[in-house]
Write a structure and sequence with these properties.
Helices cover 24% and strands 24% of the residues. By secondary structure, the protein is an alpha+beta fold.
């Protein structure tokens, strides 16, 4: 329903907080200038593994404006955290390089930085292990990865592969990757007696509150968490990180508000990273392209601090019909910083390998890559056997092919040339699971005819405020300009984090429920509260996934090795789009991130120190404006009644899934050379061209 200044659900409403952000009125976590505020700066461990034997703070404390230096043991009185990443300053142990071993607090950020550099730490070093994961003797198969078995198998995959008339056996490698949100991890903490308030950059304030309550042994009602504006996260802010614990510790120690904004160079070792994966794909098929065997074996690493498994093999349990499947993970514990969520964890690297291998199979069979995927479309989810709630990947493939002009493509590689440039096109499919979690929300009718919707959602740049208002207006049957949303404050009804592409689906369900009740039963009072516990978390008989298809055109410079993306098209099937403008922004932003994964982004584990030398944006290269073509993103409308009242699926991550494979397949089509390790940097391209592949 649209009013004179309203916007119907699904229409391209502008973000409500946009003007605040571009004018500087929106305040982020480090911008709360509370009276008497001090600043903190971390001291990272300089050894790969060991223990702190001494901390000399005298030079630091002698500097002007320095208030305190917190040392190992400062957090000894806190409860032991469930997440080992938060066990900072509890004791002398150093599990990896970059671990916080001291925290300087001063009147200004500059003084705190100078004090941190003046702290002298001595260590007892211990042998560390950060050997390559391939062939590592300590690898094991985890029982569970992201709620699924670490190993899934049916049929006789080895036997079927040996008997297959066509076979592909290839290994793909993805390096460590880093989230690098625009706003680094930051917290401003303030104690008022035994009441704690934190302004923090987080994807989930409700979770931050419960974790702080556990650590500091406080009732949750004595803790307030404010995260009204968040400058990106991509998974790295999904759960609390050390900044919020350290800021609260420093504020309690000094008796003053304290802001800790992590320096960007510290992020790779502090807040999580996408663990590297080595993925072996073995495909067996009939000459007509029908798969007879699919074996997807993933090896990755985890930190000894806490286990996290990059579940890249899970996509093979969803995508293609095959009577024989093995999808397995092998994880190696190392003395490295903690691995954690990064946009589409598992699916992004997993689909890169699977869709690249499918392209190789298409080449081996002389088949069209689109046709090969259509040929192997399953009727049900292959591993679970559940029917799909909706699955329109074939429609995405066909519509994408039509719009891209795929039918006119000569499949032979290396033929299109423009001087030193070789031109190629490639494609890949995409999938991401539909996830939803219980949430609460309230809706209030005001005497002036307006409405206020409240939910402790996190707007991490996705336009959550706007979309939730559209959901509310639709359920209430009123124009959009009569609805106001309040988010990002722990005093609001509790909500799950913005992650796993489940934020809007989860919060929106509760908002819709509250507003629908308010509209149908105004006699209940001016404020109605709803909770989806028991509904959103109920088992579903359906396999619920979003799908998509990517098409790419690249130009490869044979002189410099440089790759330029000329065209990038994504067509998605992700339920009902709740806001056309913010949806397209999410898709294209994720596609750009996929470009970075394919072409520029990479880090390495230093064998001597066990951390990442590419610790800033000068050495860890993300795509810039000049790298990005005119990206197209569109969708197929799905009417899926098995999701939530809005019929929506998450869209924050499906756009990155498959992008790297489409680009890699395009590079192969341009050059005739198959590159199986990301990123596709000029040095790798030139080496391949000079060696002839």
């Amino acid at each position: 329903m649209t009013g004179t200044t309203g916007t119907a659900l699904g229409a391209p409403a502008e973000r409500r907080e946009g003007r605040q952000k571009v004018t500087g009125a929106a305040r982020y976590a480090a911008e709360y200038a509370l009276p008497g505020r001090a600043h903190a700066w971390p001291v990272p461990a300089a050894v790969a593994r060991g223990r702190v034997t001494g901390v000399d703070t005298s030079a630091a404390l002698a500097l002007p404006g320095v208030l305190a230096v917190l040392t190992p043991g400062a957090a000894a009185q806190l409860a032991e955290p469930e997440d080992g990443m938060l066990a900072v300053l509890r004791g002398p142990a150093v599990p990896h390089r970059g671990w916080c071993v001291a925290l300087a607090v001063a009147e200004t950020p500059e003084a705190a930085r100078a004090a941190a550099r003046a702290v002298r730490v001595t260590y007892e070093t211990q042998a560390h292990d950060n050997r390559p994961v391939e062939g590592h003797p300590d690898g094991y198969v985890p029982q569970e990865v992201n709620g699924e078995p670490g190993r899934a198998e049916y049929g006789d995959p080895e036997g079927a592969l040996a008997a297959a008339e066509a076979r592909v056996d290839v290994t793909y490698r993805v390096p460590p990757l880093h989230n690098h949100p625009m706003e680094p991890h930051a917290t401003t903490a303030h104690w008022d007696g035994d009441r704690l308030t934190v302004y923090t950059s987080s994807q989930g304030g409700t979770t931050v509150r419960s974790v702080l309550a556990q650590l500091f042994r406080l009732p949750e009602e004595r803790i307030t968490v404010v995260a009204e504006h968040v400058g990106g996260g991509f998974g790295a802010k999904g759960t609390p990180r050390p900044d919020v614990v350290l800021a609260a510790l420093a504020a309690r120690h000094t008796g003053r508000p304290v802001t800790l904004a992590y320096p960007r160079r510290n992020l790779p070792t502090t807040v999580g990273h996408r663990a590297p994966t080595v993925q072996r794909l073995r495909l067996g098929a009939h000459p007509d392209g029908r798969l007879t065997a699919l074996l997807h074996e993933v090896t990755t690493h985890t930190s000894r601090v806490t286990e996290f498994v990059e579940h890249a093999g899970a996509v093979s349990r969803v995508m293609y019909a095959t009577p024989n499947l093995r999808s397995s993970h092998r994880v190696v514990p190392l003395d490295v910083p903690v691995a954690s969520w990064m946009r589409a964890p598992g699916e992004a690297p997993g689909m890169y390998a699977l869709e690249s291998a499918m392209d190789e199979l298409a080449d081996a069979l002389g088949m069209d890559p689109v046709g090969l995927r259509v040929r192997n479309e399953p009727e049900r989810e292959p591993f679970s056997g559940k029917p799909f709630s909706s699955r329109h990947v074939v429609e995405c493939l066909r519509e994408g092919a039509r719009r891209f002009g795929w039918a006119g493509r000569d499949p032979r590689p290396g033929l299109r040339r423009e001087g030193p440039l070789r031109i190629g096109t490639g494609m890949a499919a995409a999938t991401y699971p539909v996830q939803v979690a219980p949430s609460a929300a309230s809706a209030e009718a005001r005497p002036d005819g307006t409405f206020v919707v409240r939910v402790n959602a996190a707007d991490i740049g996705t336009g959550a405020r706007t979309v939730l208002a559209q959901i509310a207006a639709d359920a209430l049957g009123v124009p959009l300009d009569r609805v106001r949303t309040e988010v990002g404050h722990s005093d609001l009804p509790p909500a799950p984090l913005a992650g796993g592409s489940c934020g809007t689906a989860s919060w929106g369900w509760a908002v819709h429920k509250a507003c629908a009740r308010l509209a149908a039963h105004p006699e209940e009072g001016p404020t109605v509260r709803a909770d989806t516990t028991g509904e959103a978390d109920a088992d579903s008989p359906y396999a619920r996934h979003a799908f998509g298809a990517h098409f790419a055109e690249v130009a490869v410079d044979t002189v410099t090795g440089e790759i330029r993306v000329r065209r990038l098209l994504g067509v998605f099937a992700a339920g009902r789009m709740l806001n056309a403008r913010t949806a397209r922004s999410q898709f294209t932003g994720a596609q750009i991130m996929g470009m970075g994964m394919a072409l520029t982004e990479s880090s390495t584990l230093d064998p001597a120190f066990g951390d990442f030398p590419e610790a800033d944006l000068a050495s860890y290269h993300v795509p810039v404006h000049a790298d990005v073509p005119d990206i197209e993103a569109d969708w197929i409308d799905e009417d899926d009644p098995h999701l939530n009242p809005m019929g929506s699926k998450g869209i924050g991550e499906i756009g990155i899934v498959g992008t790297a494979a489409a680009l890699g397949n395009a590079v192969h089509h341009a050059t005739g050379i198959r590159f199986r390790e990301l990123p596709l940097t000029p040095d790798r391209i030139l080496t391949g061209l000079l060696s002839g592949g």
